[in-house]
Write a structure and sequence with these properties.
By secondary structure, the chain is α/β, with parallel strands linked by helices. It is built from 9 helices and 7 strands. Pfam families: adh_short_C2.
Length: 262
């Protein structure tokens, strides 16, 4: 199926690796031009080269910077001739006990995982509406549906973004002009971040990484971890011309791990 993305411009945040890179790859394969951002300049440039090799017809621009800062957002937006597609993404805050967190930790989590996406949405959706096409996908977390006790910073910040999107996505001046805003909620995906978590768990408990992986895998009905490639393909589907009637939704990708009906 042709997703109707050829020639569109996409801004993909935290795209040098993991799920952000998976989204950028899927969009480039569909013919979209992309601006990718991340804090690590060297890895970002390597990713940009790999994306160009996937589809030489697509233009790929790399902008190193912190999307959680006004300067980082301004640089990324300036590199994109127009934003038809916005993929908001940022690394999650660290786990821990809420008793140990002060205002500094909370503000950092909110800046990265709630306020930065809102600022980018604010900067782009009205122009999308003026062109009668726009797609915003926020990469949040499966913890929005099933909170994890040690991820309180993430639970709070991402749930705040979810509530904000629920209202904004339904504004007729956006939804009525073919501008959609949806959230993608990943469960356990085989990424560098998850592997670091496994390594930390192994060091803390004395188990091997393989033992921790096997136990986690057994809790997933699909009996495997997700891949960044398949996550990116779902993202591209949400960005497609065919997805104009889908907005304000939380799409959970977790291999069936969440056991709720709703």
């Amino acid at each position: 199926m042709d997703l109707g993305l050829n020639g569109r411009w996409a801004l993909v945040c935290a795209a040098s690796k993991g799920l952000g890179r998976g989204c950028a790859e899927a969009l480039v394969r569909e013919g979209a031009n992309v601006v990718i951002t991340a804090r690590g300049a060297d890895e970002l440039q390597r990713t940009a080269e790999a994306l160009r090799a996937l589809n030489p017809a697509a233009e790929v621009r790399a902008v190193a910077g912190d999307i959680a800062t006004p300067e980082g957002r301004a640089a990324a937006l300036a590199a994109c001739p127009q934003v038809d597609i916005l993929v908001n993404n940022a690394g999650g805050p660290p786990p821990g006990d809420f008793r140990d967190w002060g205002r500094e930790q909370w503000i950092a989590a909110l800046d990265a995982n709630m306020l930065a996406p809102i600022e980018l949405i604010k900067a782009t959706v009205d122009d999308m509406a003026a062109r009668d096409f726009g797609r915003v996908v926020n990469i949040t977390s499966g913890a929005v549906k099933a909170p994890i006790d040690v991820l309180g910073l993430s639970n709070g910040a991402r749930s705040g973004l979810t509530g904000f999107v629920a209202g904004v996505a339904r504004q007729p001046r956006l939804a009525g002009r073919n501008v959609t805003i949806n959230n993608l909620l990943p469960g356990a995906f085989d990424t560098e971040r998850l592997r670091k978590g496994w390594a930390a768990g192994a060091a803390r408990t004395g188990q091997t990484v393989d033992e921790i992986m096997d136990k986690r895998r057994a809790t997933i009905p699909a009996q495997r971890f997700g891949t960044a490639e398949e996550f990116g393909q779902i993202c591209a589907m949400l960005c497609s011309a065919q997805a104009g009637y889908l907005t304000g939704q939380n799409i959970l990708l977790d291999g069936g791990a969440y056991a709720g009906t709703f």
